[in-house]
Amino acid sequence: TMFRRGFILFLPRLVGLLVVACCSVSIVYMLACTPKGDNQQLALPRVHSPTVKEGYEAILQEREEQHRNYIISLKKQIAQLKAELQGRTEQLKNMQNQYPDSLDIQLDHSKPEKAQANLLAFLRSQVDKAEVHSGVKLSTEYAAVPFESFTLQKVYQLETGLTRHPEEKPVRKDKRDELIEVIELAVGSLNKPDGVSKAKPRVYTASDFVEGIYRTEKNKGTLYELTFKGDAKHQFKKIVLFRPFGPVMKVKNENINMADTLINVIVPLAKRASKFRQFMQNFREMGIQQDGRIHLTVVYFGKEQMNEVKSILENTAKSANFKNFTFIQLNEEFSRGKGLDVGARFWKGNNVVLFFCDVDIYFTAEFLNSCRLNTQPGKKVFYPVLFSQYNPSIIYGHHDSIPSLEQQLIIKKETGFWRDFGFGMTCQYRSDFINIGGFDLDIKGWGGEDVHLYRKYLHSNLMVIRTPVRGLFHLWHEKQCLDELTPEQYKMCMQSKAMNEASHGQLGMLVFKQEIETHLHRQKLSSKKT
């Protein structure tokens, strides 16, 4: 009974506390839900206030204004997204125009047959870009991309050529375009929104590029690693890209009949009867006896030693029963370009392959076939890189005797070098030579005319085949640089003279010959004392 009385007395107090708590919660809720103005909180209108209607209208108007501003903000964002989407669409269209099939290959995985067809079409377009079917115009003589030749046993490549520099600009158009494309792709990747950071993204440009490295595995592709400046000092961004190579595909399968393809070998000459005798021995063996589809045109300047040269030519022709030769004599100062131009234009027969040659050149029958196979009227001209022989007296100075000429013709680092700065020995059809305009006849003496003709072909749509060949040699001879040459010609002549003597190692042995002999002498004395 005492417990019941206590509970009855406590119950009104509990109810009062609950009522007070409910009222407090209600007041807090209304204060929290009251809309805010620009600078202060809107007052909640009292229920019995005469302005209750105007208060709620003000609240509704404020809420409507907030929603209107929100809608305007959304519209701006949508417009920005549409503009960005349109820009990305234009970029995609440009990429599709440039690489129309590569994107389909990547995106259309649901249709394997279509992807395969697109892959083949894309690879064919790559073949078209690679000068397989036609040539492209090039800017300089160093812009032509050289081929590398090989047999089952050996590869003949230009890696040890003398025109390379430890630091140089990417002169070749293919290499320059490749690196520009890679840098632009890396910059575009850096500027692509990541969707995570809310801060305003930094805009990268090519000027932020620090350095890059790349390597190519010919059966896989090219790997690029490019480094860019970061957001702060000592911070960097690195982009790694990979260009995969496609599979090998057949481009052509054709039969080539060279049985009736005649080569007209044109040799300009002044004096040098002994060298001409050596040349005719090579011409008789390789051109007449082994090949047989050949004509020789000799353009001789002046009259000194002319009878001796004619006698050598006629005796060789008589002994070999060879009648396909022409001898042209010009009473003027020697000009290599003039001699070759006259010899080419003198020909009156059908279209013929012209081989512009010098008297100090040795060629094989295999080279003559290469000359035919790499020329095509209106399509291709052939600029072989010949192997230039060093001075035999230096190369074989430590031997008892100098080997025969045939034994000297070995392609090794110690015996010579690929003459990749020379453009004088070339094969092309006469029709292409005439159409291109021939030689610049204003160039006199030695050097310059060959480069001028080479540039003409590079600036045309003809394909220039540039490759080292194993059957074409420049025989060493002492070079005379005449005082009559222009300063530029004289400089070119002296550079060629310096390069022709020996390898760097062999020249070094000559320079330090005295030190080497002194060392050997000391060693000999030391061994006697012991």
UniProtKB/TrEMBL annotation:
Molecular function via GO: glucuronosyl-N-acetylgalactosaminyl-proteoglycan 4-beta-N-acetylgalactosaminyltransferase activity; glucuronylgalactosylproteoglycan 4-beta-N-acetylgalactosaminyltransferase activity; metal ion binding
E.C. designation(s): 2.4.1.-
Subcellular location: Golgi apparatus, Golgi stack membrane
Major subcellular location class: Golgi
Record key words, sorted: Coiled coil, Glycoprotein, Golgi apparatus, Membrane, Metal-binding, Signal-anchor, Transferase, Transmembrane, Transmembrane helix
Domain of life: Eukaryota
EC category name: transferase
Membrane topology category: Single-pass type II membrane protein
Pfam families: CHGN
Transmembrane segments: 7-32
Gene Ontology CC terms: Golgi cisterna membrane
GO annotation, biological process: chondroitin sulfate proteoglycan biosynthetic process
Coiled coil: 64-98
PANTHER family referenced in this protein's UniProt entry, alphabetically: CHONDROITIN SULFATE N-ACETYLGALACTOSAMINYLTRANSFERASE 1, CHONDROITIN SYNTHASE
Name of the protein this chain belongs to: Hexosyltransferase
Species per Swiss-Prot/TrEMBL record: Sylvia atricapilla (blackcap)
Lineage: Eukaryota, Metazoa, Chordata, Craniata, Vertebrata
